[in-house]
Amino acid sequence: MGGRVCGDHFGGDGEGKPSYEDIDRTWIISGEDPHTTYKYAALAAQLAFCLKTINVADPEGVDWTKEAREAYDWAKANTRAGDELTKPAMGSLLKDIRSFAAASLYQLTGESKYHDQLKIDLASISSSSILNDENRFGSFVYAAMKNQTLDAALKTKLISAIKTTANLSLTAANNRACRWGGDFFMPMLVGQSTTPKVFEVMMAWYMTKDTDPAKAKDYKTCIQNTADYFLGNNPLNTTWITGLGLRRPERVFHMDSWYNGKDEMAPGITPYGPWRKESYETGLGPWQMAWAFKSIYPVNVTDWPGHERWFGNYPSPMNCEFTV
What we know:
Elements: E1 5-6, E2 28-29, H1 34-53, H2 64-77, H3 94-109, H4 112-121, H5 135-144, H6 152-174, H7 199-208, H8 213-230, H9 255-259, H10 317-320
Antiparallel strand pairs: 1-2
């Protein structure tokens, strides 16, 4: 699998066609790499396990177990010298992504080769480690696994790391007026003001609900308060999802919705929302976040509470774009 997609042949396919009618473009994808392929293996194995658990066949007849195995084997066979090192354009170590694939395939198949690999890849995690980015998911899968023989010491260590990470959100919530969790030090950009990010807290609740009810209650309260915040208990009383709630983003940077002839945006989109002031933003046009700052009072946007800096400026990607 490759990771970089070019959807218009670098401008060579012309203009005038919305993506939902886009069936004959020239698509160019970067060369296959083990990082992306291991991630595909992980997701395919997870889907296969979910379908197996509920005893449902894939509606299109895809053999996801076969997909996962083949992707994993290809990634392993095509890992080159230097691939295990930090990559400038990747941001995640190969072992972290591979641990997710190995854990997911071990959960699905019970084969020892996957177990052996994930134990190697997760060995650097300690009970006090802070999990982030790609090293979270292999840890989550293994710590929650119930259907295979596990390394008890490793599972205990991973559960402790999950709780250590989740406890940071509890501390953050206790230091916020509306008690919402998430990274206390994340800058106000790319969804910090609109998107709940308490995955670790949900996992910690799951790990403790039967063994430590008091602590599990703390995690659950953090999850509930965080959901409340982004569903309306925030300074703008806004439900940060298109199509949901009485007060919601009416327009976002979703060009299909602008041109499909419907009155409302496609439902289910969470925009990036209020964003910190950036020195390079001069308000040249509505595509810039600072365009709205010309007609606000108080006139200095930095006098506004951070999470109230939403002006519905939908042509601005920084405010109104979103991540899928």
